[in-house]
Design a protein that fits this description.
The complex is a heterotrimer.
Chain A: H1 2-26, H2 29-54, H3 62-80, H4 84-108, H5 111-129, H6 135-138, E1 144-145, E2 156-157, E3 160-161, H7 164-188, H8 190-200, H9 202-207, H10 212-238, E4 240-241, H11 248-261, H12 268-286, H13 291-305, H14 309-332
Antiparallel strand pairs in A: 1-4, 2-3
Helix pairs in contact in A: 2-7, 2-10, 2-11, 2-12, 3-4, 3-5, 3-10, 4-10, 7-10, 11-12, 11-14, 12-13
Chain B: H1 2-32, H2 39-55, H3 60-83, H4 91-113, H5 137-159, H6 161-171, H7 173-178, H8 183-209, H9 215-230, H10 235-256, H11 262-276
Helix pairs in contact in B: 1-5, 1-6, 1-8, 1-9, 1-10, 2-3, 2-4, 2-8, 2-9, 3-8, 5-6, 5-8, 6-8, 9-10, 10-11
Chain C: H1 2-19, E1 27-28, E2 36-43, H2 53-68, E3 76-83, H3 88-101, E4 106-108, H4 113-126, E5 130-133, E6 149-151, H5 156-170, E7 176-181, H6 184-197, H7 201-204, E8 205-211, H8 219-227, E9 232-236, H9 239-251, E10 257-260, H10 267-274, E11 283-286, H11 300-312, H12 321-340, E12 343-344, H13 346-353, E13 357-358, E14 370-371, E15 383-388, E16 393-400
Parallel strand pairs in C: 1-12, 2-3, 2-4, 4-5, 5-6, 7-8, 7-9, 9-10
Antiparallel strand pairs in C: 11-15, 13-14, 15-16
The chains are: A mainly alpha, B mainly alpha, C alpha/beta.
Chain lengths: 334, 290, 402
């Protein structure tokens, strides 16, 4: 039984991998663009999940880190001619620093107070980006237009060329795989357990010797770094940054994606990304007079049907299926 | 000097707007231990109901009280229909439901009433006896109304059995049930009262800022800041917090940092205060026993 | 001999007849054919800028009316409008959807400066017309750099210059205070205004304060402006804040010479809520007819507009000046398509857009025309100085602009 399961798993993974590699050549350019955005949002939501899902620190302001990552990439590309792929680690480092710094006051705040503080950060960022003293760098309200990178080599599959959109899809995919792998390794072992312990029983955790200050502030930093990398990717793919791209609603969208996907789960981020990318489009098609209301109805429906997110629902179904399997196994034995 | 006084006065006036919204948030927190992000939009919707009644020719105070009653029912119904299914769900699930309600109310208001700004009547005539050199009649009037609501809230929670039952239901639902309190009903009543307070806030705010579906979007954040600064479980704190936020913002904008950064700086200062006093200026400090 | 000529002639005629069914009715690019013309549009129907969504709905209603009257040169307009929530990344996505999936012929009247900036390069790379962009930013009239993009309304900087010139002419020693929205729209106006004042800008402008759209009121800013001692007030705000500013100025007893930007110069949307008395003597410029101005109550152009709204867009509010913009821009679009005739390639549409010579529109002020040329990508440039007399706007002074 185990061997069969393993074989199915490997076969399934290979199929998924093949699909991911071939898909961009079967789809129209703009669909590839949409899927790339899903990947980018998934990375951002993964960052938020590390902080809020695994470590229990509310953040309503992750849009701020996305913005910082995006502008870091944009300024490096625009003012210093740095190639796009080199901006990603820089954006990660910058956001790591910022997030870690913000982690300090966050230590003292809990629950709603932390939510307000991070919300305030998300609100302040667009205003700061427009500030005239740094306008020379940030482009002020007009933003910065970026060149769209081309593929470094030529390739054609099914007669479709490896154009800019497809190339960026693969770049995003590679970055996503790296980030997800990093997160998996980070959260799998002692660190992951420490974070969850801090989330559920902070006093017991510190009694056990876990250094709360260190873990909480570093988690903030790491979480910010993840979302910052997503922001940098976003800047490259959209080829434009402006303060209006990073309003409070972006932070709220990340939170929505987090909860809809499922807390404390790495694959959940993918479902979150799919939700926040496509549901507004569906709402738009259903109603021009009140599209936001349709979006709200989607939110409510998802929360009623799956209060623990998509991954929560999947887990429940999986457990039920496994339970029945065990039962039937048990029943089969005399 | 006159300019300074004007700034402080104008800050107090705006601050009382934040205070009113903050009170509604304190109400909802005291009864449910949740912060309702949709509070502002519900208040805006209630104000539109009042506006519609006034357009039909109703006298002001009739429309005022009918709106309060209608808002109570609205809040009650919203809790029963939309919040009850997620009562036992994790906090963040509730937050997403609040966000869903926020966008629904905003969008529906825009659809029904459209986006042009509408003047809203003030019940306090311009040249009333209580208008002073620095405060307009409406400002004095709405601050008094806010103060009355504050007193009513304080008395309600402190001295009435229903208020006590509500606080118990929010703080310790299981024990409250054991004592015979219908927790679920308390939550619904709490929502109804918060919506009613919100509608009062909306009707006081609209004459100053003009009524449109986005009226409360900016104010909600300041209401949150006010409530949290003062301590989320303290109605007095919310009012004082609101006044502080209003004055601070104005003074920062006029004398310290200029209007282009005043939002950021004000928020940074609030966060700074919170790090020094994590439960707010007047909030109860909760000490957990190990 | 005659017989041979006759044979050749007969063969030629036969050939022409045989080839006739192969010749299509016109020349087309993706988005146009014998039956329809696909027009794409992106508006903020959701989010904080949702009040502007009504422009898209007015345009949709107008195209519906044109279709019911038989379309343009026998073709119906298929108007596809998508929501971007005023978020530039979403605008990029929707623009690509319209161009690559829906294969529209052109994008019409897309709204917002950052949103249009995000797709500016893309549209020009793809050589798809980005026509009659719904913002007043100055950068859309750039035929050399971006030959596929064109604005519609008079740009904000030009309007700022008009006010500056008027002040220099009438009050050369004025002390000016400015209230502006802290975004591209506000800053563009201020930039033009300062440019118009030239060297005297530094000495004449004694106070500049900004506000964000998330600010609940601008009361504090108004108090600051009064305290500065300014006697001229340049008010760059959207209707909600303009009304607040006018009301507060009256309350605190500040009576400067008040220049209000055209975005908010509407009797019904701004002045009436603010108080007609408080709004007396406000100066602005206008190019659209204000549907709430009693001066036009019996004007045939206005009555036609009113009937159109009642029949095709009944939920639309007659006092909303935004609807007039959508109406006028849609009319201009129809004119361009009419001029293009059966040659509906994107290049030809752009050529006709740069070849407009309309003496006016029913809902444009008298004297305001729409002219474009290969080096003039600003269709509406003329603006008329107006002053509010407590009841309506009275035209005075001259019509500025080319």
């Amino acid at each position: 039984m185990n061997n069969l399961n393993r074989k199915w798993l490997i076969l399934g993974s290979l199929l998924v991998l093949a699909a991911l590699l071939i898909a961009p050549f079967l789809l129209k350019n703009f669909r590839v663009f949409q899927i790339t955005l899903v990947i980018i949002y998934a990375i951002a939501i993964l960052g938020l999940n590390i902080l809020t899902g695994f470590n229990g620190q509310f953040s309503l302001g992750h849009g701020a880190f996305y913005a910082i990552g995006a502008y870091t990439a944009a300024i490096l590309m625009d003012k210093f001619g740095v190639p796009y792929w080199a901006t990603f680690p820089v954006a990660a480092a910058v956001c790591l620093g910022f997030g870690w710094l913000i982690g300090f006051p966050a230590l003292r705040l809990a629950g709603h107070y932390l939510a307000l503080a991070t919300f305030a950060l998300a609100l302040a960022i667009p205003q700061l980006l427009k500030y005239k003293l740094i306008e020379g760098w940030t482009g002020g309200v007009q933003g910065i237009v970026l060149p769209k990178p081309d593929a470094p080599f030529d390739l054609a599959i099914f007669g479709q060329r490896l154009n800019s959109d497809r190339w960026l899809y693969f770049v995003a995919l590679i970055v996503a795989i790296i980030m997800f792998w990093l997160a998996y390794n980070l959260l799998r072992g002692r660190v992951g357990r420490a974070l969850i312990a801090i989330r559920d029983h902070p006093i017991a955790a510190s009694a056990m010797g876990i250094n709360l200050t260190y873990f909480k502030s570093v988690t903030f930093g790491v979480s910010a770094a993840f979302t910052g990398v997503a922001g940098a990717l976003g800047a490259v793919v959209v080829a434009f940054v402006a303060p209006d791209s990073f309003t409070v609603f972006l932070s709220i969208s990340f939170l929505v994606g987090l909860v809809v996907g499922g807390l404390a789960s790495i694959p959940a981020a993918i479902f979150g990304g799919i939700f926040i990318q496509y549901v507004p489009n569906i709402a738009d098609e259903l109603s021009k007079s009140a599209p936001w209301a349709i979006y709200g109805i989607f939110l409510l429906t998802f929360m009623y049907v799956m209060p623990t997110g998509v991954m929560g629902l999947i887990r429940k179904i999986w457990e039920k299926a496994a339970h029945r399997h065990v039962d039937s196994d048990a029943a089969a034995q005399p | 000097m006159e300019g300074f006084i004007h700034q402080v006065v104008s800050g107090l006036a705006t601050g009382s707007i934040y205070a009113a919204v903050g009170l509604a948030l304190v109400m909802i927190y005291q009864s449910t231990h949740h912060l309702n992000f949709a509070q502002g939009e519900m208040a805006m919707f209630s104000t539109f109901i009042a506006w519609a009644l006034l357009e039909k020719g109703w006298p002001y105070w009739a429309a005022f009280f009918v709106t309060i009653a209608a808002s109570f029912i609205l809040g009650f119904v919203v809790q029963r229909l939309f919040l009850r299914p997620v009562e036992k769900a994790p906090v963040l699930t509730n937050v997403i439901v609040f966000i869903g309600l926020l966008v629904i109310f905003n969008s529906v208001a825009g659809w029904i009433f459209d986006y042009t700004i509408k003047p809203f009547q003030s019940p306090f005539p311009k040249d009333a006896w209580f208008s002073t050199r620095f405060f307009s009649a409406h400002e004095v009037g709405s601050m008094s109304v806010t103060f009355c609501v504050l007193l009513a809230l304080y008395v309600f929670f402190r001295f009435t059995p229903v208020g006590l039952a509500m606080r118990a239901a929010a703080q310790n639902p299981d024990s409250a049930r054991l004592v015979g309190i219908r927790v679920s009903m308390m939550l619904a009543v709490g929502w109804g009262l918060a919506a009613a307070i919100g509608s009062v806030a909306g009707m006081m705010i609209a004459p100053v800022v003009f009524l449109d579906p986005h009226m409360m979007s900016g104010i909600l954040l300041y209401g949150f800041a006010a409530a949290l600064l003062g301590g989320i479980d303290n109605p007095w704190g919310a009012v004082i917090g609101g006044l502080i936020v209003g004055v601070l913002e104005n003074l920062l904008g006029a004398y310290v940092i200029g209007t282009e950064l005043k939002l950021s700086v004000a928020l940074v200062m609030i966060v700074g205060v919170l790090t020094l006093k994590p439960s707010g200026l007047f909030g109860k400090v909760v000490v957990t026993r190990v | 001999m005659k017989r041979r000529v006759f044979n050749i002639a007969a063969a030629a005629v036969a050939a022409v007849f045989a080839a006739a069914p192969v010749i299509a009715k016109g020349k087309y690019d993706p988005g146009a054919d014998d039956k329809e013309i696909k027009i794409g549009n992106i508006m903020p129907y959701s989010g904080p800028a949702s009040s502007y969504g009504t422009i898209g709905k007015t345009a949709a209603a107008y195209f519906k009316m044109i279709n019911e009257k038989g379309g343009i040169n026998g073709r119906k307009i298929n108007f596809i409008s998508l929501d971007d929530g005023y978020s530039p990344p979403k605008t990029v996505e929707q623009a690509r959807k319209l161009v690559e999936q829906e294969e529209v012929l052109l994008l019409f009247h897309t709204l917002g400066t950052p949103t249009n900036s995000a797709i500016h390069k893309y549209m020009n790379q793809k050589k798809v017309p980005q026509l009659f962009v719904a913002t007043g930013a100055t950068k859309w009239g750039d035929p050399k750099g971006h030959p596929w993009t064109m604005g519609w309304q008079p740009n904000y900087q030009a309007e700022g210059i008009i006010y500056a010139q008027h002040i220099l002419e009438t009050m050369p020693n004025a002390k000016i205070g400015i209230l502006f929205q802290n975004d591209d729209y506000g800053k563009d106006y201020v930039h033009g205004f300062e440019e118009g004042l030239g060297a005297k800008a530094k000495t004449m402008i004694i106070k500049k304060v900004s506000y964000e759209t998330t600010d609940p009121t601008v009361d504090s800013q108004m108090v600051e402006l009064k305290a500065s001692g300014a006697d001229v007030f340049f008010n760059v705000t959207i209707p909600k804040f303009a009304a607040q500013a006018i009301k507060k100025a009256a309350e605190i007893g500040w009576k400067p010479v008040h220049y209000l930007n055209s975005v908010s110069a509407s009797v019904g949307s701004t002045l009436k809520p603010a108080g007609l008395d408080a709004s007396k003597d406000i100066i602005s410029v206008q190019y659209n007819k204000d549907p709430t101005d009693p001066a036009w109550a019996n004007d045939p152009g206005f009555l036609e507009y009113k009937a159109f709204l009642a029949k095709y867009y009944p939920e639309g509010n007659i006092i909303d000046a935004l609807n007039v913009t959508g109406y006028n821009a849609a009319m201009t679009m129809v004119q361009v398509l009419k001029q293009a005739g059966d040659n509906l390639t994107r290049a030809n549409v752009m050529k006709e857009a740069a070849n407009l010579n309309m003496p006016g529109l029913p809902m444009l002020l008298p004297g305001i025309d729409i002219k474009t040329g290969p080096n003039d990508f600003f269709p509406v440039e003329k603006e008329q100085l107006i002053k509010f007399d407590g009841e309506k706007f009275v035209r005075f002074g001259k019509v500025y602009g080319r």
